[in-house]
Design goal:
heterodimer, A: about 450 residues, alpha/beta, Rossmann fold, 6-stranded mixed sheet, 4-stranded antiparallel sheet, globular, B: about 290 residues, alpha+beta, 3-methyladenine DNA Glycosylase II, Chain A, domain 3, Alpha-Beta Plaits, two-stranded antiparallel ribbon, 11 helices
Chain lengths: ~450, ~290
């Protein structure tokens, strides 16, 4: 019997079209737009100005607080301007435009493929280097990693969980990374374990990636304290709280952080970024992005420089198919449709999904028939139909009592609703309003 | 017969005792309420819209009775007439407030502002605004789902679904401010009402730089500052690439309307201009 989380969940069609496609380097773009807010927390403040020459890996925006990170240039060339432009939300955000010229890297970056296993840094030095390298959670939430590695006072991490679940349909970027960079990920895990002072790490992988499970299980034998757990294919297995529940059996209390049950969760992609930052002196300025979709002629996994326009990726995967209905940044369940192909790839972009017209259409909204399917699939044990009504009627105090803030926005309720009701739309709205109310109390 | 007598007698005694007790209790726990509160409440429009800033007409009446000066209090629905009757009840002096009217500061109708994408989520402005910038390239403009229409208790807003931007009907609007609260893009403003519904107003909220704004909408304000220069009354200010006309200072001279290169400043309620002929004359004279 495979491990899984104890409440709810759905199983959407997996559609992992690009699972056997090797990671390729995307050709360098001509210009990039690098937003200064690519993470949760305060936006970084630009330290370059128009006309400045920058190299690959150079800091171009400095972290502006503890919950914030540095932003590094992903290309070499000249700063065209520091200005606003629309990001994936369609709202203008500040960022840095760079005209690409050549590909000149900072000297300290080790560009060889050679595996470096040994390190002799202590925990706080590792955290400091991670902070400087601008590493954020690469699973999609983009929470600054160095913040996670410093537990609040009186709390102690017991186990490090590595998220290699990739439960979103279509996406294969973590899968490919695990297959191609297994050793590097293992060293990254060792570094994270050292910084957290834990001696146990568990990698959770969904059972639809048997090759990755086998490879990592074998590699794990060479490294102390690391083990691999195969998990049932069930969405949202990769949710932080779901993964903790599946692997350790513990439940994170409502409103608490995973550290409350002694767990710290990191994505395998983050572990790889940590390896590169510390062993190769390479800050985070590129990531693996899956470009996929049923109509795409060449579904691929690309290594992409941050700031590259979405249109470049689409072009490299064979162009925009005729009957594209939506272009989604991220996976089909939690990703967001982007309003324009000029939107840049950021640290949190795990995939670009080109959804076909008929696949992307929402069904006609009908009345709620009180079937309670949304209740049975909710992995957080909430009552989505009720939360939707409360959002619709603006009854936010009751919504707070019904734990609307616990919603992880996985979309299982909207996915399963036979009446195609926009459950998550209203819940997210209610969550935003309740969040405002809670903040105003402080 | 005697049964009936006993029954009646017992009930009468109980009734009398209860009445005596209740009389004393009522005396002891009497709450004094100013009778003028009821009077004031009766003179109010009973719309309970909250436009005055209080929770309904009763709360407003209480506040009026407590107040020593009506300067801060105003019932936007009843207007000057109502406030005068309230003042006469309370023996205070009514402070005349210029009537106001709501205006949606966006002229990005479908023919001025092309759609560049489509939103298929729950069709309310609040949800659309929380999800992303909107169906056009203008992230500041009206979304057109009608959260303001929904919020209006007086049927004063016409959705105009085919045009993409609702219209406020001045004769029905009471300036209660419900729509101002409801609009997630902060487009609606309560402006001073002029005779015949005349207005001169910047119908745009786009804070993007000129070129970007113009690209997304034909009638966007590009913040060029021509209107600010031509205004003799200091009514126009430019902030964040956007002009704003203070309706309390504006004298409706319409100079700004003629100089605005993008027609972002609009005039409402004026008779059609005869300037065209004058222009012809002056051009022929040259």
């Amino acid at each position: 019997m495979l491990k899984t989380f104890n409440l709810g969940g759905v199983h959407p069609p997996e559609n992992k079209l690009s699972a056997d496609k090797k990671i390729e380097n995307l050709p360098l773009p001509k210009t990039v737009f690098i937003p200064v807010a690519q993470h949760i927390g305060a936006p970084a403040s630009p330290v370059v100005k128009r006309g400045d020459e920058v190299k690959v890996g150079q800091v171009i925006a400095q972290s502006s607080g503890f919950v914030s990170t540095n932003i590094h240039s992903s290309v070499s060339g000249k700063v065209k301007k520091v200005d606003v432009s629309a990001d994936s939300s369609g709202y203008s955000k500040q960022g840095i435009f760079i005209d690409v010229a050549g590909d000149e890297w900072m000297e300290e970056i080790d560009r060889t493929e050679e595996l470096v296993k040994e390190f002799n840094l202590d925990g706080s030095e590792i955290v400091k280097k991670i902070q400087e390298a601008g590493i954020v959670g690469l699973g999609g939430a983009t929470f600054p990693t160095h913040v996670k590695l410093v537990p609040p006072k009186g709390m102690k991490a017991e186990v490090l969980l590595l998220n290699g679940v990739e439960c979103e349909p279509y996406l294969t970027s973590d899968h490919r990374l695990m297959l191609e960079k297994a050793d590097e990920i293992m060293v990254g895990i060792q570094l994270l374990m050292k910084s957290l002072q834990v001696n146990k790490a568990v990698i959770g992988i969904e059972n639809n990636k048997p090759d990755a499970i086998q490879l990592l299980t074998e590699k794990a034998k060479e490294y102390q304290g690391v083990s691999v757990v195969a998990l049932k294919v069930q969405y949202p297995q990769g949710g932080e709280k779901q993964l903790i529940n599946a692997v350790t059996g513990k439940e994170v209390p409502s409103g608490a952080l995973p550290i409350a049950v002694g767990a710290v969760v990191s994505n395998v992609g983050t572990a790889f970024a940590v390896y590169e930052a510390i062993q190769k002196n390479k800050p985070l300025f590129e990531r693996i992005v899956t470009v996929t979709g049923k109509g795409v002629s060449k579904p691929s996994n690309f290594r992409v420089r941050v700031g590259t326009a979405t249109s470049e990726l689409v072009e490299a995967a064979g162009g925009l198919p005729e009957n594209t209905g939506k272009v989604i940044s991220g996976g089909p369940m939690m990703g967001r449709a982007i309003p324009s192909l000029d939107v840049p790839v950021t640290k949190g972009t795990s995939g670009i999904l080109l959804m076909q017209e008929e696949e992307s259409k929402r069904g006609e909204v009908l009345n709620c028939i009180r079937c309670a399917r949304c209740v049975s699939v909710c992995p957080m044990g909430l009552e989505p139909y009720l939360l939707m009504t409360l959002g619709e009627k603006h009854i936010f105090d009751r919504a707070e009592e019904e734990r609307v803030m616990d919603c992880i926005e996985c979309g299982s309720c909207s996915f399963t609703c036979p009446s195609h009701r926009p459950l998550l739309d209203y819940i997210r709205y209610g969550k935003g309003k309740v969040g405002q109310i809670i903040r105003s109390r402080k | 017969m005697s049964i009936i007598l006993y029954t009646v007698a017992t009930l009468a005694i109980i009734g009398a005792t209860a009445a005596i007790i209740l009389y004393f209790v009522a005396q002891k726990f009497k709450v004094f309420e100013d009778p003028r509160i009821d009077e004031v409440e009766e003179s109010l429009p009973s719309a309970n819209c909250g436009g005055c800033g209080f929770a309904g007409c009763r709360a407003f009446a209480e506040a009026c009775v407590k107040a020593t000066d009506l300067g801060e209090l105003n019932c936007p629905v009843g207007g000057a007439e109502t406030m005068e009757s309230v003042a006469s009840i309370l023996g205070l002096e009514a402070v005349k407030k210029a009537p106001r009217v709501a205006f949606i500061r966006c002229n990005g109708t479908c023919d001025h502002r092309p759609k560049t994408n489509a939103f298929d989520g729950a069709s309310t402005c609040a949800i659309s605004a929380a999800s992303y910038g909107g169906e056009t390239d203008c992230e500041f403009g009206c979304l057109g789902y009608g959260d303001c229409v929904e919020s209006c208790e007086f049927d004063a807003i016409d959705l105009r679904a085919d045009m993409g931007v609702p219209l406020i009907l001045d004769d029905k609007c009471v300036a209660c401010g419900a729509c101002v609260e409801a609009c997630p893009k902060n487009l609606i403003e309560l402006r001073k009402m002029y005779p015949k519904g005349r207005k001169v107003v910047v119908a745009c909220r786009n804070e993007a730089k000129g070129g970007v704004a113009r690209k997304s909408c034909e009638v966007a304000c590009i913040g060029c500052g021509k209107c600010e220069k031509v205004c003799n009354f200091d009514a126009i200010t430019i902030e964040n690439n956007l002009a704003f006309i203070d309706s309390d200072k504006c004298k409706l001279c319409r100079k700004c309307v003629s100089v605005c290169p993008t027609h972002a400043i609009i005039e409402v309620g004026f008779p059609p201009r005869k300037i065209k002929e004058e222009e012809k004359e002056s051009s022929t004279a040259k």
